[in-house]
């Protein structure tokens, strides 16, 4: 099926051709800094399934704890974070679920895994049923 998404201003849109995705929260410090929020919610999909259909995102390379590059793609106009490509997961893209259209930001009501729970704010509880990884697994 096709999932679509966009940034806040609509300058960037994308489409994903995938039957399913892995739903993952990431509580790492970089995700907090990037979004200004407590965590990112992600639909993790095969990298080849993601196509930008309008505009050109900017990118910023952050160096992860592994020493590998985490490429952050965002709208140059409104600043929405759209997706990340991690050098440690060369075949996958972590689409920021809040940018998905049609209520898909809900991730089907299910979170399969939480990363970097060691950095999760103490006011948030673990998601029931989600695998808990202290760092990146
Ligand atoms: Zn935008
Ligand atoms: Zn993170």
From TrEMBL:
| InterPro entries named among the record's database cross-references | CENP-V/GFA, Mss4-like_sf
Q: Which residues form the CENP-V/GFA domain?
A: 3-124
Q: Which terms are listed as keywords in the entry?
A: Lyase, Metal-binding, Zinc
Example of a GO MF term: metal ion binding
Q: Keyword Lyase, does the record have it?
A: yes
Protein family membership: Belongs to the Gfa family.
Q: What protein does this entry describe?
A: CENP-V/GFA domain-containing protein
The organism's taxonomy opens as:
Eukaryota, Fungi, Dikarya, Ascomycota, Pezizomycotina
